[in-house]
Protein backbone atom coordinates (compact mmCIF):
# COMPACT_ATOMS: atom_id res chain seq x y z
CA UNK A 1 0.00 0.00 0.00
CA UNK A 2 1.11 3.55 -0.75
CA UNK A 3 -0.17 6.43 1.33
CA UNK A 4 0.49 10.09 2.13
CA UNK A 5 1.34 10.76 5.78
CA UNK A 6 2.74 13.57 7.91
CA UNK A 7 4.81 13.25 11.07
CA UNK A 8 4.58 16.90 12.11
CA UNK A 9 2.24 19.80 11.56
CA UNK A 10 3.11 22.48 9.05
CA UNK A 11 2.88 23.48 5.41
CA UNK A 12 2.33 21.23 2.42
CA UNK A 13 5.98 20.19 2.55
CA UNK A 14 5.28 17.92 5.56
CA UNK A 15 3.29 15.51 3.36
CA UNK A 16 5.32 12.39 2.51
CA UNK A 17 4.59 9.24 0.53
CA UNK A 18 5.07 5.93 2.34
CA UNK A 19 5.01 2.22 1.49
CA UNK A 20 3.46 -0.22 3.95
CA UNK A 21 1.75 -3.64 3.97
CA UNK A 22 -1.81 -3.75 2.64
CA UNK A 23 -4.30 -3.41 5.50
CA UNK A 24 -6.70 -6.15 6.61
CA UNK A 25 -10.28 -5.45 7.70
CA UNK A 26 -11.33 -5.98 11.29
CA UNK A 27 -14.85 -6.92 12.43
CA UNK A 28 -17.39 -4.57 10.87
CA UNK A 29 -14.81 -3.11 8.48
CA UNK A 30 -14.07 -3.27 4.77
CA UNK A 31 -10.92 -2.55 2.79
CA UNK A 32 -11.52 -0.29 -0.21
CA UNK A 33 -9.09 -0.23 -3.12
CA UNK A 34 -9.17 3.51 -3.77
CA UNK A 35 -9.50 4.79 -7.33
CA UNK A 36 -10.00 8.48 -6.52
CA UNK A 37 -9.46 10.47 -3.33
CA UNK A 38 -10.98 13.86 -2.64
CA UNK A 39 -8.91 16.88 -1.61
CA UNK A 40 -10.73 19.13 0.86
CA UNK A 41 -9.85 22.16 2.94
CA UNK A 42 -10.40 20.13 6.10
CA UNK A 43 -7.34 18.09 5.06
CA UNK A 44 -5.22 21.23 5.40
CA UNK A 45 -6.70 21.91 8.86
CA UNK A 46 -5.47 18.53 10.09
CA UNK A 47 -2.10 19.03 8.41
CA UNK A 48 -1.62 22.44 10.03
CA UNK A 49 -2.76 21.22 13.44
CA UNK A 50 -5.89 23.38 13.53
CA UNK A 51 -7.74 20.12 14.17
CA UNK A 52 -5.67 18.17 16.72
CA UNK A 53 -4.68 14.58 15.96
CA UNK A 54 -2.04 12.12 17.09
CA UNK A 55 1.08 11.99 14.91
CA UNK A 56 2.13 10.46 12.63
CA UNK A 57 -1.14 10.27 10.71
CA UNK A 58 -2.39 9.67 7.19
CA UNK A 59 -3.72 12.56 5.13
CA UNK A 60 -7.18 12.93 3.63
CA UNK A 61 -10.59 11.65 4.65
CA UNK A 62 -12.59 10.90 1.49
CA UNK A 63 -12.41 8.43 -1.36
CA UNK A 64 -14.15 6.15 -3.84
CA UNK A 65 -13.19 2.68 -4.97
CA UNK A 66 -14.00 -1.03 -4.95
CA UNK A 67 -14.44 -3.22 -1.88
CA UNK A 68 -11.43 -5.57 -1.86
CA UNK A 69 -12.07 -7.39 1.44
CA UNK A 70 -14.71 -7.51 4.16
CA UNK A 71 -14.38 -8.22 7.85
CA UNK A 72 -16.43 -10.41 10.13
CA UNK A 73 -20.09 -9.44 10.47
CA UNK A 74 -20.23 -7.14 7.45
CA UNK A 75 -23.61 -7.24 5.70
CA UNK A 76 -23.91 -3.71 4.29
CA UNK A 77 -21.61 -4.25 1.27
CA UNK A 78 -19.76 -7.10 -0.45
CA UNK A 79 -16.45 -7.65 -2.24
CA UNK A 80 -16.60 -6.04 -5.68
CA UNK A 81 -19.08 -3.32 -4.71
CA UNK A 82 -18.23 0.23 -5.72
CA UNK A 83 -18.45 2.48 -2.67
CA UNK A 84 -17.50 5.89 -1.41
CA UNK A 85 -16.71 7.18 2.07
CA UNK A 86 -15.91 10.48 3.74
CA UNK A 87 -15.12 12.11 7.09
CA UNK A 88 -12.64 9.34 7.92
CA UNK A 89 -9.41 11.18 8.83
CA UNK A 90 -6.30 9.39 7.66
CA UNK A 91 -8.07 7.15 5.12
CA UNK A 92 -8.09 9.38 2.06
CA UNK A 93 -4.73 9.73 0.34
CA UNK A 94 -3.88 6.04 -0.08
CA UNK A 95 -4.26 3.07 -2.36
CA UNK A 96 -6.18 1.03 0.25
CA UNK A 97 -8.48 2.42 2.94
CA UNK A 98 -9.99 0.73 5.99
CA UNK A 99 -13.61 1.84 6.23
CA UNK A 100 -16.30 0.97 8.79
CA UNK A 101 -18.96 -0.84 6.76
CA UNK A 102 -21.65 1.50 8.13
CA UNK A 103 -19.76 4.42 6.52
CA UNK A 104 -19.49 2.81 3.07
CA UNK A 105 -21.84 4.51 0.60
CA UNK A 106 -22.97 2.50 -2.46
CA UNK A 107 -22.29 4.35 -5.73
CA UNK A 108 -25.16 4.08 -8.24
CA UNK A 109 -24.73 3.28 -11.91
CA UNK A 110 -24.43 6.37 -14.04
CA UNK A 111 -22.01 8.18 -11.74
CA UNK A 112 -18.28 7.97 -12.39
CA UNK A 113 -15.69 7.60 -9.65
CA UNK A 114 -14.72 11.24 -10.19
CA UNK A 115 -18.34 12.32 -9.94
CA UNK A 116 -18.99 10.21 -6.87
CA UNK A 117 -16.10 11.61 -4.86
CA UNK A 118 -17.07 15.13 -5.96
CA UNK A 119 -20.58 14.55 -4.63
CA UNK A 120 -19.65 13.26 -1.18
CA UNK A 121 -18.21 15.89 1.21
CA UNK A 122 -18.94 18.89 -0.98
CA UNK A 123 -22.24 17.73 -2.45
CA UNK A 124 -23.68 16.62 0.87
CA UNK A 125 -22.44 19.82 2.52
CA UNK A 126 -24.25 21.93 -0.06
CA UNK A 127 -27.33 19.76 0.43
CA UNK A 128 -27.61 20.09 4.20
CA UNK A 129 -26.87 23.82 4.01
CA UNK A 130 -29.74 24.37 1.57
CA UNK A 131 -32.21 21.83 2.97
CA UNK A 132 -31.66 21.83 6.73
CA UNK A 133 -29.78 24.89 7.98
CA UNK A 134 -32.19 27.50 6.63
CA UNK A 135 -35.39 27.28 4.61
CA UNK A 136 -34.56 29.49 1.65
CA UNK A 137 -37.67 30.80 -0.07
CA UNK A 138 -38.46 31.90 -3.61
CA UNK A 139 -36.92 35.32 -4.21
CA UNK A 140 -34.78 35.34 -1.04
CA UNK A 141 -31.43 37.02 -1.62
CA UNK A 142 -28.45 35.10 -0.24
CA UNK A 143 -24.70 35.58 -0.24
CA UNK A 144 -22.31 32.75 -1.15
CA UNK A 145 -18.62 33.33 -0.57
CA UNK A 146 -16.16 31.56 -2.89
CA UNK A 147 -18.98 30.77 -5.31
CA UNK A 148 -16.59 29.07 -7.75
CA UNK A 149 -15.07 26.76 -5.14
CA UNK A 150 -15.86 23.09 -4.69
CA UNK A 151 -18.78 23.65 -2.33
CA UNK A 152 -19.60 27.07 -3.76
CA UNK A 153 -20.50 25.84 -7.24
CA UNK A 154 -22.82 23.16 -5.86
CA UNK A 155 -24.31 25.45 -3.22
CA UNK A 156 -25.03 28.11 -5.83
CA UNK A 157 -26.76 25.61 -8.11
CA UNK A 158 -28.97 24.26 -5.30
CA UNK A 159 -29.92 27.73 -4.07
CA UNK A 160 -30.75 28.94 -7.57
CA UNK A 161 -32.90 25.84 -8.12
CA UNK A 162 -34.84 26.79 -4.96
CA UNK A 163 -35.56 30.21 -6.43
CA UNK A 164 -33.04 32.18 -4.40
CA UNK A 165 -31.27 35.24 -5.78
CA UNK A 166 -27.61 34.34 -5.29
CA UNK A 167 -24.90 36.93 -4.82
CA UNK A 168 -21.57 35.17 -5.23
CA UNK A 169 -18.07 36.34 -4.39
CA UNK A 170 -14.88 35.31 -6.17
CA UNK A 171 -11.41 36.58 -7.04
CA UNK A 172 -11.00 36.31 -10.80
CA UNK A 173 -12.81 36.69 -14.11
CA UNK A 174 -12.61 32.93 -14.72
CA UNK A 175 -14.22 32.20 -11.36
CA UNK A 176 -16.82 34.91 -11.95
CA UNK A 177 -17.87 33.16 -15.16
CA UNK A 178 -18.09 29.82 -13.34
CA UNK A 179 -20.23 31.32 -10.58
CA UNK A 180 -22.56 32.93 -13.10
CA UNK A 181 -22.91 29.66 -15.02
CA UNK A 182 -23.81 27.92 -11.76
CA UNK A 183 -26.72 30.31 -11.28
CA UNK A 184 -25.44 33.36 -9.40
CA UNK A 185 -27.50 36.44 -10.31
CA UNK A 186 -24.73 38.78 -9.17
CA UNK A 187 -20.98 38.35 -8.79
CA UNK A 188 -18.77 40.47 -6.54
CA UNK A 189 -15.05 40.47 -7.20
CA UNK A 190 -13.66 40.88 -3.72
CA UNK A 191 -10.27 41.70 -5.18
CA UNK A 192 -11.86 44.79 -6.73
CA UNK A 193 -15.01 45.68 -4.78
CA UNK A 194 -16.12 46.15 -1.20
CA UNK A 195 -18.43 43.20 -0.50
CA UNK A 196 -20.63 44.94 2.09
CA UNK A 197 -21.14 48.08 0.00
CA UNK A 198 -21.93 46.08 -3.13
CA UNK A 199 -24.39 43.79 -1.30
CA UNK A 200 -26.21 46.80 0.14
CA UNK A 201 -26.36 48.32 -3.34
CA UNK A 202 -27.73 45.13 -4.91
CA UNK A 203 -30.35 44.64 -2.19
CA UNK A 204 -31.43 48.29 -1.99
CA UNK A 205 -29.99 48.55 1.49
CA UNK A 206 -31.95 45.57 2.84
CA UNK A 207 -29.16 43.02 3.13
CA UNK A 208 -29.32 39.25 2.59
CA UNK A 209 -31.39 36.61 4.35
CA UNK A 210 -28.42 34.25 4.65
CA UNK A 211 -24.67 34.59 4.19
CA UNK A 212 -23.03 31.21 3.49
CA UNK A 213 -19.41 31.61 4.52
CA UNK A 214 -16.87 28.83 4.02
CA UNK A 215 -13.92 31.23 3.93
CA UNK A 216 -13.80 32.32 7.56
CA UNK A 217 -11.34 34.87 8.93
CA UNK A 218 -11.12 37.00 5.77
CA UNK A 219 -14.88 37.30 5.22
CA UNK A 220 -16.75 36.85 8.50
CA UNK A 221 -17.08 40.56 9.27
CA UNK A 222 -18.50 41.27 5.82
CA UNK A 223 -20.84 38.28 6.09
CA UNK A 224 -22.42 39.62 9.27
CA UNK A 225 -22.47 43.21 8.00
CA UNK A 226 -24.36 42.07 4.87
CA UNK A 227 -27.25 40.49 6.79
CA UNK A 228 -30.80 41.76 6.82
CA UNK A 229 -32.51 41.97 10.23
CA UNK A 230 -33.03 38.46 11.65
CA UNK A 231 -30.74 37.05 8.98
CA UNK A 232 -28.31 34.16 9.40
CA UNK A 233 -24.55 34.02 9.01
CA UNK A 234 -23.80 30.35 8.32
CA UNK A 235 -20.08 29.80 8.88
CA UNK A 236 -19.34 26.32 7.51
CA UNK A 237 -15.60 26.51 6.82
CA UNK A 238 -12.38 28.42 7.34
CA UNK A 239 -10.33 28.28 4.14
CA UNK A 240 -8.69 31.63 5.02
CA UNK A 241 -8.09 30.66 8.64
CA UNK A 242 -10.09 30.25 11.86
CA UNK A 243 -12.42 33.02 13.00
CA UNK A 244 -11.57 34.94 16.16
CA UNK A 245 -14.10 35.35 18.95
CA UNK A 246 -17.20 37.31 17.92
CA UNK A 247 -18.99 39.66 20.30
CA UNK A 248 -22.68 38.62 20.33
CA UNK A 249 -23.56 42.31 20.56
CA UNK A 250 -22.55 42.59 16.89
CA UNK A 251 -25.47 40.31 16.01
CA UNK A 252 -27.77 42.45 18.14
CA UNK A 253 -26.75 45.66 16.40
CA UNK A 254 -27.14 44.06 12.99
CA UNK A 255 -30.81 43.39 13.77
CA UNK A 256 -31.26 40.32 15.99
CA UNK A 257 -29.20 38.18 13.62
CA UNK A 258 -28.06 34.58 13.98
CA UNK A 259 -24.65 32.90 13.73
CA UNK A 260 -24.30 29.18 13.14
CA UNK A 261 -21.26 26.89 12.74
CA UNK A 262 -22.64 23.62 11.33
CA UNK A 263 -20.68 20.58 10.19
CA UNK A 264 -21.52 17.75 7.82
CA UNK A 265 -20.81 15.09 10.44
CA UNK A 266 -23.81 16.19 12.50
CA UNK A 267 -26.10 15.83 9.48
CA UNK A 268 -24.79 12.36 8.50
CA UNK A 269 -24.33 10.96 12.02
CA UNK A 270 -26.26 7.73 11.37
CA UNK A 271 -26.06 5.31 8.45
CA UNK A 272 -29.68 6.10 7.63
CA UNK A 273 -28.92 9.83 7.45
CA UNK A 274 -25.73 9.23 5.43
CA UNK A 275 -27.49 7.05 2.86
CA UNK A 276 -30.50 9.35 2.61
CA UNK A 277 -28.39 12.45 1.99
CA UNK A 278 -25.95 10.79 -0.40
CA UNK A 279 -28.84 9.33 -2.41
CA UNK A 280 -30.47 12.75 -2.60
CA UNK A 281 -27.29 14.24 -4.07
CA UNK A 282 -26.68 11.33 -6.44
CA UNK A 283 -30.29 11.58 -7.67
CA UNK A 284 -29.77 15.26 -8.52
CA UNK A 285 -26.62 14.38 -10.46
CA UNK A 286 -28.25 11.51 -12.37
CA UNK A 287 -31.23 13.74 -13.24
CA UNK A 288 -28.76 16.35 -14.56
CA UNK A 289 -30.08 18.84 -12.03
CA UNK A 290 -26.68 19.23 -10.38
CA UNK A 291 -23.48 19.65 -12.39
CA UNK A 292 -20.25 18.43 -10.82
CA UNK A 293 -17.02 20.21 -11.69
CA UNK A 294 -13.71 18.37 -11.38
CA UNK A 295 -10.89 20.89 -11.33
CA UNK A 296 -7.74 18.76 -11.55
CA UNK A 297 -6.66 15.22 -10.80
CA UNK A 298 -3.14 14.85 -9.33
CA UNK A 299 -1.02 11.72 -8.95
CA UNK A 300 -0.87 10.56 -5.34
CA UNK A 301 2.77 11.66 -5.03
CA UNK A 302 1.72 15.24 -5.87
CA UNK A 303 -0.58 15.63 -2.86
CA UNK A 304 1.56 18.49 -1.55
CA UNK A 305 1.07 20.41 -4.79
CA UNK A 306 -2.67 19.79 -4.60
CA UNK A 307 -2.65 21.40 -1.14
CA UNK A 308 -0.60 24.36 -2.37
CA UNK A 309 -2.96 24.96 -5.27
CA UNK A 310 -6.01 24.70 -3.03
CA UNK A 311 -4.64 27.11 -0.44
CA UNK A 312 -3.50 29.62 -3.05
CA UNK A 313 -7.05 29.92 -4.45
CA UNK A 314 -5.84 28.76 -7.88
CA UNK A 315 -8.48 26.05 -8.03
CA UNK A 316 -12.12 25.84 -9.03
CA UNK A 317 -14.41 22.87 -8.50
CA UNK A 318 -13.25 19.59 -6.94
CA UNK A 319 -9.58 18.57 -6.73
CA UNK A 320 -8.78 14.84 -6.77
CA UNK A 321 -5.89 12.44 -6.28
CA UNK A 322 -5.31 9.31 -8.37
CA UNK A 323 -3.71 6.69 -6.09
CA UNK A 324 -2.76 4.51 -9.06
CA UNK A 325 -0.64 7.23 -10.67
UniProtKB/TrEMBL annotation:
Pfam assignment, any one: ADH_N
Listed SUPFAM superfamilies: GroES-like, NAD(P)-binding Rossmann-fold domains
One GO cellular component term: cytosol
Matching SMART domains: PKS_ER
Entry GO MF terms: mRNA 3'-UTR AU-rich region binding; NADPH binding; quinone reductase (NADPH) activity
Keywords linked to the UniProt accession: NADP, Oxidoreductase
Domain of life the protein comes from: Bacteria
Protein name, per record: NADPH2:quinone reductase
UniProt organism field: Kytococcus aerolatus
Amino acid sequence: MRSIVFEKHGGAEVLEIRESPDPQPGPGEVVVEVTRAGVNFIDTYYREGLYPTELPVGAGNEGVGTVAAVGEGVTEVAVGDRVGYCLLPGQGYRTHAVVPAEKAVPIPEGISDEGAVSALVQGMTAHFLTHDVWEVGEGDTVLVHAAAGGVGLLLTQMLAAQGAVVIGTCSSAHKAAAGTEAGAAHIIRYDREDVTERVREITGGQGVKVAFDGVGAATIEASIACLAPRGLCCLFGASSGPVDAIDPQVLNKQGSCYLQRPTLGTYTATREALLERSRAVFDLVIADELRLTVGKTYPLAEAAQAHRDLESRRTSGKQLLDPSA
